[in-house]
Design a protein that fits this description.
- The structure is a homodimer of 247-residue chains.
- The first copy, chain A, has nine helices and eleven strands.
- In chain A, helix 3 crosses helix 4.
- Helices cover 38% and strands 25% of the residues of chain A.
- Chain A has two domains: 160 residues, MoaB/Mog-like domain (Molybdenum Cofactor Biosythetic Enzyme, Chain A, 3-Layer(aba) Sandwich), CATH 3.40.980.10; 68 residues, 2-Layer Sandwich (Alpha-Beta Plaits), CATH 3.30.70.
- By secondary structure, the first copy, chain A, is of the alpha/beta class.
- In chain A, strands 2-1-3-8-7-6 form a six-stranded mixed beta sheet, with helices on both faces. A three-stranded antiparallel beta sheet of chain A has the order 9-11-10. In chain A, strands 4-5 form a two-stranded antiparallel sheet.
- In chain A, a hairpin with a 2-residue loop joins strand 7 and strand 8.
- The interface between A and B is large, with 66 and 66 residues.
- Strand 2 of chain A pairs antiparallel with strand 2 of chain B, so a sheet runs across the interface.
- Chains A, B: This is Molybdopterin binding motif, CinA N-terminal domain.
- Chains A, B: It comes from Hyphomicrobium sulfonivorans.
- Chains A, B: InterPro entries: CinA, FLAD1_M, MoaB/Mog-like_dom_sf, MoaB/Mog_dom.
């Protein structure tokens, strides 16, 4: 399923607790790295509240712009979990208890010896036309409808759902990366680096400083889907840095 | 400067390295918690690439919707640091070397014994009409123009800049929080909690599960700017949980 087209994605993180600062999000970085590894370009991330209007507006904006939209959060059993309903509203489809999800959840509740309450069965409410995404951790499924992939917010659960859905995604050419580490501040190499970017306009070039262990260092990162061009860019940069005694 | 109005904010994280998954963002959570502590409601976060069009569009959308927009990233010395120019473009103002910033940077370079190069002096380019935000860590200033607050991406630097600019911000009524911890899954209390939300529609109520140490637990979080209403909601919820033997 991989090819040379550019496949893009956005992530929509849904959760009051992220916006209040109570909970640091861990899903953005995990999904971003995963997308890079399978050749999908993550282009935008948004974080919105557990609010229907906010979710509907963001979903409709993002699903139109990118190949895929991945949402996290808000598919649990409590009243603040409104994502499934908001997705159905955004896509203009009905939503009710999906027999496949009901069966999975009821079997799980029996195994665990807990009561099947209306609140718990909210997790079986799936928009019409969606495919389920398996959740081996806690059973309540995610789902995919059109190009919208709806995952849990709890990181461990989100990660297994993402693994499950990956086989269904179109992927593009994988972005390759080369990193050159320097024990110097970015300012020392900025002019050289800018000129090198001009020489290789199709290789994305970024410079990232750090101050770890009290020492200033810089990582120069080159990215391209073209391995041959990337290697030429890397060699050319190394030659210039060497000639200035910077590596 | 605090009052009873609702003061809102959005955060715009600018950086290819966040979208590629190379670097986990640490600023969203820090800023979110800081906003909560000073009574500003963070309503939305976006992450975009180091791309002028993307930055301009996001800046214009967000600065119109909220009291403040805080951006992080892209104000360093390298060619991929394009935030200051993009902000000037979005606001339709000129940008060039600001004498105040030039003075700060030149003095810093002299102290450090490094050359003042064109690349380094890019960090003195500030949109016309902006006020500077001090950077005691690495000197290159942030800035604030209209309701747009432009900070560094490096977390340590961002945090000191945020501290510096806080005194200039209007703040609102502080959101107060009460948390009740249960050693039970969310599903056990979801119906009770939903009914309690109906009883106290002006108190935000959210339920957050966790699976730490192999044990399922849930935190019920109540939030309100009205301390008296919050306490009544908390007491009412505790009474119900007690009567069902859940705490």
């Amino acid at each position: 399923m991989s090819g040379e087209e550019t496949v893009t994605a956005a992530v929509l993180v849904i959760g009051d607790e992220i916006l209040s600062g109570r909970t640091p999000d861990r899903n953005i970085n995990y999904i971003a790295a995963h997308m890079t590894s399978i050749g999908i370009r993550l282009r935008e991330v948004r974080v919105v509240a557990d609010d229907e209007r906010e979710i509907v507006d963001a979903v409709n904006a993002l699903r139109a712009r990118y190949t895929y939209l991945i949402t996290t959060g808000g598919i649990g059993p409590t009243h603040d979990d409104i994502t499934a309903d908001a997705i159905a509203k955004a896509l203009g489809v009905p939503i009710d208890h999906d027999p496949r999800a009901v069966e999975l959840l009821e079997a799980y509740f029996v195994r665990r010896g807990v009561t099947s309450t209306p609140a718990r069965m909210r997790m079986a409410r799936i928009p019409h036309g969606a495919e389920l995404i398996a959740n081996p951790v806690s059973v309540a499924p995610g789902f995919m409808i059109d190009n919208v992939i709806v995952l849990a917010g709890v990181p461990d659960v989100m990660q297994v759902m993402l693994d499950d859905v990956t086989a269904r995604l179109r992927t593009g050419a994988k972005m390759l990366t080369e990193t050159i580490k320097l024990s110097r501040p970015e300012g020392d190499v900025a002019d050289l680096f800018a000129a090198h970017q001009q020489a290789f306009p199709d290789v994305a070039m970024g410079s990232y400083p750090s101050f770890a262990d009290g020492r200033i260092s810089t990582q120069l990162v080159l990215r391209s889907t073209d391995s041959e061009m990337l290697e030429r860019a890397r060699q050319g940069l190394m030659a210039q840095l060497n000639s200035r005694g910077m590596v």
